[in-house]
Structure formats: structure tokens, C-alpha cells
Automatic annotation (TrEMBL):
Protein name: Cytochrome P450
One Pfam family this sequence matches: p450
Annotated family: Belongs to the cytochrome P450 family.
InterPro entries: Cyt_P450, Cyt_P450_B, Cyt_P450_CS, Cyt_P450_sf
Keyword annotations: Heme, Iron, Metal-binding, Monooxygenase, Oxidoreductase
Signal sequence extent: none
Alphabetical list of SUPFAM superfamilies matching this protein: Cytochrome P450
Organism expressing this protein natively: Streptomyces luteosporeus
Length: 412
């Protein structure tokens, strides 16, 4: 069924936001859908059946989304922060893993982790990102044809995260294979049990690495967590391993999909590709527009802990509230011509990294990865064209492609 901006049909019947299929619709159609949500039902109750909760709220306007991100008094992440876990009733790492912890413990854990994310500490990691992106793009250009997802984008985020965590070179391929099995929903022929086994092996691996770093600390995330004390107490084993894991969950797929979408969108918009190549737009500015336009994490969510009024409707304590970044980033009240991909757009206060107390810890690194990719593309590629059909991922949370066949023509 096709949805247009003027379709008289009820929105609820047309947009099941729990169903990944909904997000496989053409981008223009999804944009029209969100436009109608913002105009007609900016605070919308979305019913669900057969779950632990009767439904959830859908916030689509920029200012409403920002207000809930900011408000960790009336809204909590401890009962889950994405629709899937919120509908299941909670997250098993709540109160221990940064993204699903609130209040004082969240502040303490976040302050600790910020040490490992300080620009001075990150500099060598960012240098690694640049070198890696440059080498991978050069190699892809030399081959002429490639699957940009598999041959380029896949190799940047996990290697970066391994640098950040301080994983020794010898363990990297083991870590990569475990994260693929633990997290990828697309591994062919993989059972749910195998994913659980891989997840447990990952946690065990970080537990052992933390023991080593306690004896011989460096400046990496594992060392910071392993040696930290809060009020004279070390972190629990669970807190250490869950937060190592959270850096992988937070930083791998999001960055990978952003890079894949960056090239996809540049191929769809030759004029913007030309502006990037000619230097007419700054790479920094282009990075922000890629983030807005792509919106790799389409939503996050919270549970209300008190009754709150938003847009004239009452959200009750206990209700699930979802915040649609993919709509907020196109809100015509905030962005001029939001439906235009403009690499020179300023200002560009998108919500792709969230906002407020849970603002993405890896934003600097995520930006550096996209920056490195755009720089490598504009340096080494004169022209890029599709080499086959892109394969979209099936998700109501992340947006992007798992395969992007391309032909890359070298810059003269
Ligand atoms: C949090 C998006 C890259 C680690 C978040 C949030 C968003 C986000 C929207 C807020 C979640 C919430 O409010 O519940 C993205 C996007 C990325 C990216 C779009 C890439 C383009 C990264 C990277 C890392 C990372 C590279 C680490 C290396 C985290 C962590 C949190 C987080 C640990 C939780 C922060 C907290 O709860 O205090 N991310 N992220 N992210 N992100 Fe990212």
C-alpha cells in the first residue's frame, strides 16, 4: 500500500512501527508518513497486541523528541531504550550498562568512560581511522568493483572499537568473529543459541582482558573500567563487561551503516558529490548533513515514571514513549527544506546522536569515521556508480544497507 502526503486513510492502519517491513518503503513515502504524523498526530498512541505493554507513544516533532531526551526525571532508560526491549518489558543489563542506566550511577559511569573518550586519548584512534579509510578506499578503487559494505565499511568501526578498548592485535579476528555471531541478525544459518554462546564468550573475553589490565593498566576503555573506583569501590565484574560490550553495540553497526549510506546517497545526488569533490562544501559540514539525512538510529525510547503532558496529551507513568529521530531530523519547523539533501547545510542541529544526559558517547568518533570516509572518497574517487542492487537491512531501529555493490572510478 502506498502512502502519500494527502492520503485520507487513518495513519494507525498504515504505519505499523513495530514491523521492519514498514521501513522498507521508499524514502519519499516514509518522509510523507512522518510529515503526516507531525502535522496530524504529533503525540500518537500506537497500539500493539500480544506484548507485555498495550502500546506505546510515538513522538515525531523535533521539540517534543528533544524535550524527552533531556528529561531524565520523568523518563527512564532503565526499562529499555529501544522499542524491542521496551515492548518486552525491560533490558537485562539495566542499571549496569550506561545506555540503560539512569540517575547517579549513570553519571558516575559516564564520567569514568568520558576519560577514555577524551580527544587527547582518542587522537591515535582517530589517526588509525583515517589511515584505514584511506587504505580501504584506495584498494577498492584499484579493484574497480566491490561491495562497499563488505569490502570497505565493515573494516572500519570494529577495528576502531578494538583500538578504543585496547584489544591486542592477536585477539582481533577472534573478537570480530564473536561480535558478528553475537550481534548480526543476518549471519546465514546461525541459530539463536549460537548467538547466546558467542555473547557469553565475549563477556568472558572482556572479563579476562580486564584482569590483565588491572595488573598492567593503559589508557584504553578496558583499563579505565578495570581500575576505576567509585566511592572507594571497584566496578562490579558485570559493570565492566557490560560496558565494554556497550561500546561495541553502540559503535559498530551505527557507524558502519552511516558510511554505507553516505556513499549510497552521494551516488543518488551527483550534484552533492560534485560539491564535495570540488571543495565547495567543507567535509565537517557534509558529515552533519549525512548524519541528518541518513539518521542511522531511527528511534530511541523511554518509560515515563510520572504523568507528563506533551502536546495536550497525557503520558501516564509506566507508558512507553518512542522518540523518532528519523522524523525530528526532517521537521520543517526546524530545518529549512528538510527534504533537500544539502551538504552545505548550516545550521544543522540534527538529533542523530540523541540529546541530553544520554547523548552519544561516541559522537566524536562516529563523526571522525564519516569524515575519514568522505575525505578518502573525495581524494581517490572521481565517480561512483551502483554495481547492482543495494540490500536494505530489516529493522525498525537502524536504517541502512547490508550490501552496496559499486563501481569506483579513480580520481585523475
Ligand atoms: C548513545 C547514535 C556511534 C557509543 C547513543 C544515542 C544515540 C546514538 C542516538 C542515544 C541513545 C539514548 O538516548 O538512549 C549513534 C550514531 C552513531 C554512534 C548515529 C554513528 C554514526 C557511536 C560510537 C560509539 C557509541 C562510535 C562508541 C565507540 C554510545 C554509547 C551510548 C551511545 C556508549 C550510551 C551513552 C549514555 O547512555 O550515556 N548513540 N552512535 N556510539 N552511543 Fe552512539
Amino acid at each position: 500500500m502506498t502512502l502519500t502526503a494527502t492520503d485520507p486513510t487513518d495513519l494507525t492502519a498504515l504505519a505499523d512501527l513495530t514491523d521492519p517491513q514498514t521501513f522498507l518503503r521508499p524514502k519519499e513515502e516514509l518522509r510523507a508518513m512522518w510529515q503526516r504524523f507531525r502535522a496530524e498526530r504529533p503525540v500518537h498512541w500506537h497500539p500493539v497486541e500480544g506484548r507485555q505493554v498495550p502500546g506505546f507513544w510515538v513522538l515525531s516533532r523535533y521539540h517534543d523528541v528533544m524535550a524527552v531526551y533531556r528529561d531524565n526525571k520523568n523518563f527512564t532508560s532503565e526499562r529499555g531504550n529501544v522499542l524491542a526491549t521496551l515492548l518486552e518489558g525491560g533490558d537485562s543489563a539495566a542499571g549496569q550498562m550506561l545506555a540503560v542506566t539512569d540517575g547517579r550511577r549513570h553519571r558516575e559511569l559516564r564520567n569514568l568512560l568520558l576519560k577514555a573518550f577524551a580527544p587527547r586519548v582518542l587522537q591515535p584512534v582517530v589517526d588509525g581511522v583515517r589511515a584505514r579509510a584511506d587504505r580501504l578506499v584506495r584498494q577498492a578503487v584499484a579493484r574497480g568493483e566491490c561491495d562497499f559494505a563488505r569490502d570497505v565499511a565493515e573494516h572500519i568501526p570494529m577495528a576502531t572499537i578494538a583500538d578504543l578498548l585496547g584489544v591486542p592485535a592477536a585477539d582481533r579476528s577472534y573478537l570480530l568473529s564473536l561480535t558478528k555471531q553475537a550481534l548480526s541478525s543476518e549471519e546465514a544459518g546461525q541459530s539463536a543459541e549460537e548467538a547466546v554462546v558467542a555473547r557469553n564468550e565475549l563477556l568472558l573475553y572482556f572479563s579476562e582482558l580486564a584482569d590483565e589490565r588491572r595488573e598492567d593498566p593503559r589508557e584504553d576503555v578496558v583499563s579505565v573500567l578495570a581500575t576505576a573506583q567509585i566511592d572507594g569501590e571497584p566496578l562490579t565484574e558485570q559493570e565492566i563487561v557490560f560496558n565494554c560490550y556497550s561500546v561495541i553495540i553502540g559503535g559498530d553497526e551505527t557507524s558502519r551503516l552511516s558510511m554505507i549510506c553516505a556513499l549510497h546517497e552521494l551516488m543518488q545526488h551527483p550534484e552533492q558529490w560534485r560539491r564535495l569533490r570540488s571543495g565547495e562544501v567543507e567535509v565537517d559540514t557534509a558529515v552533519e548533513e549525512v548524519l541528518r539525512w541518513v539518521t542511522p538510529a531511527m528511534h530511541f525510547g523511554r518509560r515515563a515514571v510520572a504523568d507528563v503532558e506533551i502536546g495536550g496529551r497525557t503520558i501516564r507513568a509506566g507508558d512507553v514513549v518512542t522518540l523518532w529521530n528519523s522524523s525530528a531530523n526532517y521537521d520543517e519547523e526546524v530545518f529549512a527544506d528538510p527534504g533537500v539533501f544539502d551538504l552545505g547545510r548550516t545550521p544543522n542541529k540534527h538529533v542523530s546522536f540523541g540529546y541530553g544526559p544520554h547523548f552519544c558517547l561516541g559522537a566524536y568518533l562516529g563523526r571522525a569515521e564519516i569524515h575519514a570516509l568522505l575525505t578518502a572518497l573525495r581524494t581517490h574517487v572521481a565517480h561512483a556508480e551502483p554495481g547492482g542492487a543495494a540490500r536494505p537491512i530489516h529493522s525498525n531501529f537502524l536504517h541502512g544497507y547490508s550490501a552496496l555493490p559499486v563501481r569506483l572510478h579513480p580520481a585523475g
